[in-house]
Amino acid sequence: MTSEQGHSPVVVVTGANGLVGARVSDALVRRGATVRAVVRRPGTAPRLDGLEERVGDFGDAHFAAQVVAGADAVVTTVHPMGSDLQTQHRVGVEDTSRLVRAARDAGVDRVVHLSTCAVYGQPDDSSDIDEDFPLVGDDADVYPLTKRDTDAAVCAVDGITRVLVRPPAILGAGDTSVWNTLRPQQVRDHEQDRHDIARKTFRWVHVEDLAALVADLATARIPAAEDVAHGPVAGGCTAVNVAGEPATIGDYLGTVARALGVEPVWEDGPAWTGQIRTDRARGWGWSPKVPLADALGELEQCVRALA
């Protein structure tokens, strides 16, 4: 599957026109892969050499079988955050697992699924979160609940190597970026969104670092292994956390508020001050390249454009 073996991998990417999907597609092309970019609307996939736009609904069994035929890997990035429970369950749990089954049946080597650190329960103290941390319960909000259930559905599809990549807040410029665009708009427009606890941990990763890990997994630059410490388990379902250097809500909200010219309101109260542990990803050879200062500088530029 790797270029060292003289083979240019073919990778299917769902949601290739989104913030993460577009960056993953670019990272894959730069690694010599051919990308089948799955989008719902014609002409919305990134314009990249080595990228083929495929228009359709990956939840449709016939389209799913067509788009994965002859592929080496599949990357799933689509989840309709903000929609109702029924929609998130249908697209996340049902459609994603249908695509994974199609990939397995087509002989695809591995699936890299974009999960989230939101699937972990929230600790009340300074405990760190690793891949064995307890998951949210059935009383969780719709997004973490359906992401948890999507992970479980992906893991239930045997016969193919599956990797669950779990990022926290994803920083990076883009019109659809939750943390660089949408959340700052809320802070701009609503005074109540300027309230938080400054010392509370802000869990983040830059989209470029996230895309690099996903692309290395999809092209098997990170090969499968028998021991999870050295790579995703061959034929198994392996979760891996990805996060940047330590930061606080004070770093994030302070930057947003300063760029908008508004005052944050710092409150007292209990706050989680632990970290997302990335020992597993680092053991696979990944490490973040974008420092916090650069990510916050980019964030400030994005927010100033909104002011």
UniProtKB/TrEMBL annotation:
<dbReference type="GO" id="GO:0004029">
    <property type="term" value="F:aldehyde dehydrogenase (NAD+) activity"/>
</dbReference>
<dbReference type="InterPro" id="IPR036291">
    <property type="entry name" value="NAD(P)-bd_dom_sf"/>
</dbReference>
<dbReference type="GO" id="GO:0005737">
    <property type="term" value="C:cytoplasm"/>
</dbReference>
<feature type="domain" description="NAD-dependent epimerase/dehydratase">
    <location>
        <begin position="11"/>
        <end position="217"/>
    </location>
</feature>
<protein>
    <submittedName>
        <fullName>Nucleoside-diphosphate-sugar epimerase</fullName>
    </submittedName>
</protein>
<dbReference type="InterPro" id="IPR051783">
    <property type="entry name" value="NAD(P)-dependent_oxidoreduct"/>
</dbReference>
<dbReference type="InterPro" id="IPR001509">
    <property type="entry name" value="Epimerase_deHydtase"/>
</dbReference>
<dbReference type="Pfam" id="PF01370">
    <property type="entry name" value="Epimerase"/>
</dbReference>
